[in-house]
Design a protein that fits this description.
This protein has five helices and no strands. It is mainly α. The longest helix has 39 residues. The N and C termini lie far apart (72 Å).
């Protein structure tokens, strides 16, 4: 009885806020607020509130929620472990599968540049020694 009264009061307050929002010519926001305000009354009318209030005070229900949480935790843990194992195996296989010249284009249409495109020569002040050192460090 108390839960139904509280849901009705919350819905009435929400509908009042929606009316004020509509008065300020914000009809889209007012419609959204009215939709949210009608949810508590809808839950009371369908009997969901009575079902939830009866369920809250039963210890068996809380034990069931605990078991569901444990099952979820176990599934999540196994997925994390599986991803870590696959990550290690795939990383090693990827290193072996990559050819040394993998950075070269695989479909070379010829060494001629396309008409209308320019090839800019590298500037004289550019120094790529630090990049080359990093690539050599990683074996690339």
């Amino acid at each position: 009885m108390l839960a139904e009264t509280m849901c009705s009061a919350v819905s009435a307050a929400g509908l009042g806020i929606a009316a004020l929002t509509a008065y300020r010519k914000r009809f889209l926001a007012a419609t959204r607020i009215a939709a949210y305000a009608l949810v508590p009354v809808g839950l009371v009318m369908t009997g969901v509130v009575e079902w939830v209030s009866g369920m809250v005070f039963k210890p068996v229900v809380w034990a069931g929620f605990g078991l569901l949480g444990l099952a979820w935790l176990l599934l999540l843990t196994t997925r994390v472990v599986e991803r870590r194992r696959l990550g290690r195996g795939a990383e090693g296989a990827a290193r072996e599968a990559v050819a040394p010249a993998a950075s070269a284009p695989s479909l070379d249409a010829g060494s001629r540049p396309r008409p209308g495109t320019r090839q800019n020569p590298p500037a004289a002040g550019e120094d790529f020694s630090d990049i080359e050192a990093i690539l050599k460090k990683h074996g690339i």
